[in-house]
Every structure is written in C-alpha cells, then in structure tokens.
Write a structure and sequence with these properties.
50% helix; Rossmann fold; 13% strand; alpha/beta
Length: 127
Amino acid sequence: MKVLIDTHTFLWMAAAPEKLPAKARELCETCELIFSVTSVWEIGIKWQIGKLVLPAPPKEYLPLQIRRGGVTVLPIQLRHTLAAAGLPLLHKDPFDRMLAAQCLEEGLKCVTRDPAISAYGVEVIWE
C-alpha cells in the first residue's frame, strides 16, 4: 500500500519516531511512503522564518532523510493544483489543502494527525 506522509509525520519519522502512534509508525515501516514536494516547500519556509529547527539546512537535511526513509517524492502536477483550487476552504493551510488534493488525485491515504484533511474525503490514518 502507498500512503502520503504529512510534513510532521516525515519529520518525526526522521528525528523522533517515538512521537508517532503505533499505527502510524507501523505504516511508516511497512508501506510505500510518498512525500510531497509541498512538504519540502513548507519545511523550507518554516525553517527560513525560524518556526522550525533542523540539525542542518533543509538543502542538506531533507535529501538525506528522504534517502534514509526510502521515501518517494511526489512532485506537484498541474492536475494537483487544479484539484486544490477546486477544494472548499475547509482547511486554512494551503499546504494541507495541496496534500489533500494530491491524495485525492493519486488515490492515497494520508498518515497525519490532522483530522481536518479528512473533511475533503481523504482517508486519514494516525492512531
């Protein structure tokens, strides 16, 4: 099974897997993990404005953790942006709306603690 991992899931998987509940951790160990370039962009912005601390700059840290985690990076496609543009503003975070759109377009479940993503019809797995 392929699952899209949310930004926090990726960061915790890389640096603090004990923060992941058992079900999320099991999926991260047994499923094909998809990580959106949307999350890479979000991490870069949060790091740049000081809202996220990383052990190294994103340009160094993220590729290393992507390789270590055996994660496949999902680019943003035109169809993803069009799907996101058509979503109602149920979630205020544009990064999370894009993740929801990508899940819907790609037929993926999302490993996230954010239940608001499920408002778009995305199956959310966490607990």
